[in-house]
Amino acid sequence: MKSKAVKKNKTVIKEIIKALMKAKRVLIIGHANPDGDSLGSQLGVAELLDTKHIEYEIVNEGVIPGKYAFLPGIDRIRNIDNYQAKGSSFDTAVFIECSNLERIGNVQTLVNNGCKIINIDHHQDNSNFGDINFLDFEAAAAGEMVYELILDGGFEISKNMATNLYTAILTDTGRFHYKSTTPKSMRVAADLLDKGASSSRITDEIYYKQSINSLALTGAVLQGLEYFLDNRVCFMSIDNALLEKTKTTKADTDGLVNYALRAEGVLVGVLFSDKGPGVTKASFRSQNHISIVDVAGKHGGGGHKNACGCTLNMPVDEAQEIIVKEIEELLDGAS
Ligand SMILES: [Mn+2]
């Protein structure tokens, strides 16, 4: 079974490399509001194209969290909000870790009819939307897949690629913490260290450097934690007033939700963000043995079993009332 999957990967990789080498102008895209895996993987693909002088643009929707500013080539990533299309249109588009076409947000406007779509993803709910689909649900990060693409495609991993791909794997495994981390993730990461990535520097940049304002936001959010259902559930909330007070932006909230699962005994953590009048975003985290994704699914959201989200068309307090009831049903059903 496993060797079959590997064989399949190699065939798809060959197809992707063939398509990329023929391409005139490539669009590289990740999902809206990029994370470390998305950014590192996109930059890995970009550098692969650099080696053959193939023209490309990387365009994303949403703000790049400041902690990724150190990634080599990060300034090549354009924001769709101020992107001015110039030159000929794209004949090939590489989608990195997007479950479906819609995940790229407004970047869709750059994907023309007839554009060859290459879909590289590790999310189980991927809709297989590409002309070429490279899907590996066992990969802990898309970065592991791009690593394979580069090496099995006959290219070398440079120091910059190693830094970008190590970042992708480090962040998507929560520093090799999540259950998704496999021996293969560690082997790939080890090889990336051999190829020049600096584990201490990357970890410092992403996890230990925080602006004074962002640290103040973290403190305020932790002060406001609320516990329910015998401390099995923890709610965290962020609204615009708090962001203004701490002089922070949405990008500073990246990763904060993980604190909601931190207290002993907590099984489900939820971050509620006020998205304007009557709109609330809920981000869920749960312990390994609890799957929370169905609660997000009830409200049209989705994601992974232990990390997912949804948007509710109601104010935060109403959303909290509904969600706590749904989590209660889930936990009592599970026990
Ligand atoms: Mn990912």
Structural features, described:
By secondary structure, the protein is an alpha/beta fold. It has two domains: 2-207, Alpha-Beta Complex (inorganic pyrophosphatase (n-terminal core)), CATH 3.90.1640.10; 212-334, Diaminopimelate Epimerase, Chain A, domain 1 (Roll). Helices cover 38% and strands 18% of the residues. It contains ten helices and twelve strands. The chain has helices at 2-22, 36-51, 142-152, 159-172, 183-194, 199-208, 212-223, 240-245, 293-298, 316-334; strands spanning 25-30, 55-60, 77-79, 92-96, 116-121, 132-135, 226-228, 233-238, 268-274, 280-286, 302-303, 307-312. The strands form two sheets. A six-stranded parallel sheet has the order 3-2-1-4-5-6, with helices on one face. Strands 7-8-9-10-12-11 form a six-stranded mixed sheet. Strand 11 (302-303) and strand 12 form a beta hairpin. Helix 2 packs antiparallel against helix 4 and helix 3 runs antiparallel to helix 4 (159-172). The chain is globular and about 60 Å long. The mean pLDDT is 94. Bound molecules: manganese (II) ion.
Would you identify the CATH H-level superfamily of the largest domain? inorganic pyrophosphatase (n-terminal core)
Alpha-beta classification: alpha/beta
Give the proportion of residues in helices.
25-40%
Tally of DSSP β-strands: 12
- Across the major sheet, the strand order is 3-2-1-4-5-6
Cα gyration radius (Å): 20 Å
Supply the number of helical segments: 10
Spatial separation of the terminal alpha carbons: 34 Å
CATH topology of the largest domain: inorganic pyrophosphatase (n-terminal core)
Residue runs with pLDDT of under 50 for 5 or more positions: none
Mean pLDDT: 94
Which CATH C-level class of the largest domain is it?
Alpha Beta
Strand content: 15-25%
Can you write the helix and strand succession as a string? HEHEEEEEHHHHHEEHEEHEEH
Can you tell me the number of structural domains? 2
